[in-house]
Amino acid sequence: MATFKYGIDYLTSGKALQIARGELEGMLVEGSLTKVRKSRAIVDQIANGQKAVYGINTGFGPLCSTMISKEDTNTLQYNILKSHSVGVGAAIPKEIAKLMLILKIHSLAQGYSGIAVSTLERIQWHIQEDIIPIVPEKGSVGASGDLAPLAHLFLPLIGLGKVIYKGKTVSTKTVFKKEGIKSIELGAKEGLALINGTQFITAFAVKVVEKLHSVLSQADIIGAMMLEGLLGSGSPFLKELHQLRPYKGNQHVAQRIHQLLLGSEILASHENCERVQDPYSLRCMPQVHGTSRTSWLHLKELVEVELNAVTDNPVVINENLTISGGNFHGQPLALPLDYACIAASEIGNISDRRTYLSLMGVVQGVPKLLMQEAGLNSAFMMLQYTTAALASENKGLCFPSSADSIPTSLGQEDHVSMGSIGGRKALSVIENVEKILAIELICAAQSFDFHHPLKSGKILEAVHTFIRSKISHAEEDRVFANDIEKAIDIITSRKILQIAEEVSSKNNGSLQTEHEKFFERF
Question: Which domain holds residue 69?
């Protein structure tokens, strides 16, 4: 198995997910541990001295001017983990909590936080053994980092809290007893180093990067299939048009859809029809999908900065310089997460419009509500009710969390990012969009059927064949919720992307566009 060196190698969203899924081994190596020991020695020296340094020999937040005695310094670290564990709500998904551990150990291993090697090794133990702390989803304002969720994340280090152990939620004490280990001893500043940082926001952002990439790539394929089903024009995807407005995202999507349509008998069958132009939801896919692509790229690039950043406070630079600053503030990710949230919602909006369009019965050969015997059958009418409901819900979730700020810590933290809320909302919106696309996939495949025996391009034909192996053509009403569940599974499994890549590779990489470098996999 390939390895990743914490504190040394460059972390990406993809690598973080690989470590979380056991596909890449994260390691603590001497190169980073040497820096960690040096930083720890500096903190010990400060703790034994008389000069006040925030978080090392003082209280926290509004108590930053309160000196703490040498004897009480260690106790302070335990108290901060306990007192800051105030999260509420359901537990975040296990993978996101594991990502938080991975992101945290990578940041601490850079040697600017004064953490002890023994503490890093215990965090590594949790990752390797897949014993993942329970972290409530709500309670962070995204300013001093993600204080509450990080406090919950690291309660197990001192024998408190709960963890997921062999698939069950159990107390840390029970696990330690079964595993024959004890809680660790925290030294000066360690508690603060553990809870200061943006690892909650960033872990959610990593998942947003992954899932939004999947949604965008599948939206192009499903949209192209719907275009074929509704006898749309291929002209809006020609490069000559997009060279006149050369946004990379737009050009990328246009070329992808153009390649998906190559060799299509369906497209050729209506080249000389009287229709002048298609509705926006068909012909403006490059502009809408492409702009959301640009948003995804922006988020991806900023997340990579954060993944490799030190977001602790104070930061130990060297023996003579310890800086109390604001690297823990979530604003750098809060704004792009809100941007990505809106970008994802727009993919759902335009997908809903295409689904609605497919039901109208205005295309020759495609019956109203996508069924020949509509009337006796309600046909596909109600599916669009669901996409409308989901699209509307997304619009409500798109209010930018970063536009709000409520002072905390008795005014010491008087501007906060609310990036943790933005991260959770963005992921919720994307999960709704997956469902909207699943319904469009059903309607696109149904409309596609009415043009048989004409064929589309090789990729779309292969995708359609796969869909029909899971969901049959509907000639009368049935419990469409079952079809929707199967379609959601298709979307979340990303199987159509795999099929598209396989067919593409057999045909000289037809889906690899000249703009691929701007949107390369993370």
Answer: 3-197
